[in-house]
Design a protein that fits this description.
heterodimer; A: about 110 residues; mainly beta; six-stranded mixed sheet; 11 strands; B: mainly beta; globular
């Protein structure tokens, strides 16, 4: 069953602005991952944060994890038009060989 | 980096026919591969976990007789959609984990778009 829930469902910003997406989940996890998907394409892994980590950075990406609130956020700073895509959070299912349970995603539009 | 390929990238077939989709890990070995399905403007839903040398594990609501999965080697898993119907039209994506890596990271294929007419 779908575990992660992202909000907002859609986000439209201008280039240079920051974009923040949130994800909530329901059960205990050992890791949470964020992926990007361009329209009709495969997924690109952005960042993985383990359950014992609170914050992680990768380039213009910053991910936080609050296991007490069962939530995570993805911040993209100084956004670019090329960041336009759908962003999904996913949690690992330890009883399924670590298959991923994906949230519904946030559709981000960055306009020049 | 690890690469996963899928073939074909898109396929159109007539209702009632079967379609096979291949998922290959090109530069690493994967004892476990996963198959997901994504309907337009929706998220990915796990269909099944494919284990090399053993039967696949299907998620609730996924018909194992309709979606046949074979994981014959450490680098290849196939998904066959049998007697396809228009409602099977979807984007099918596979992923794989590197067995030698200690991380949880999965590598995704580019997806296969299936259209059943």
């Amino acid at each position: 069953s779908q575990q992660g829930e992202e909000d907002p469902q859609a986000l439209s910003i201008q280039e240079g602005e920051n974009a923040t997406m949130n994800c909530s989940y329901k059960t205990s996890i050992n890791n949470l991952q964020w992926y990007r998907q361009n329209s009709g394409r495969g997924l690109v892994h952005l960042i993985l944060i383990r359950s014992n980590e609170r914050e992680k950075h990768s380039g213009r990406l910053r991910v936080t994890l609050d296991t007490s609130k069962k939530s995570s956020s993805l911040l993209i700073t100084a956004s670019r038009a090329a960041d336009t895509a759908s962003y999904f959070c996913a949690t690992g299912l330890s009883n399924s060989g670590y298959a991923l349970n994906f949230g519904k995603g946030t559709s981000l539009l960055v306009t020049p | 980096g690890a690469v996963v390929s899928q073939h074909p990238s898109w396929v159109i077939c007539k209702s009632g026919t079967s379609v096979k989709i291949e998922c290959r890990s090109l530069d690493f070995q994967a004892t476990t591969m996963f198959w997901y399905r994504q309907f337009p403007k929706q998220s990915l839903m796990l269909m099944a976990t494919s284990n090399e040398g053993s039967k696949a594990t299907y998620e609730q609501g996924v018909e194992k007789d309709k979606f046949l999965i074979n994981h014959a080697s450490l680098t290849l898993s196939t998904l066959t959609v049998t007697s396809a119907h228009p409602e099977d039209s979807s984007f099918y994506i596979c992923s794989a984990r590197d067995i030698w890596e200690g991380s949880y990271e999965q590598y995704f294929g580019p997806g296969t778009r299936l259209t059943v007419t």
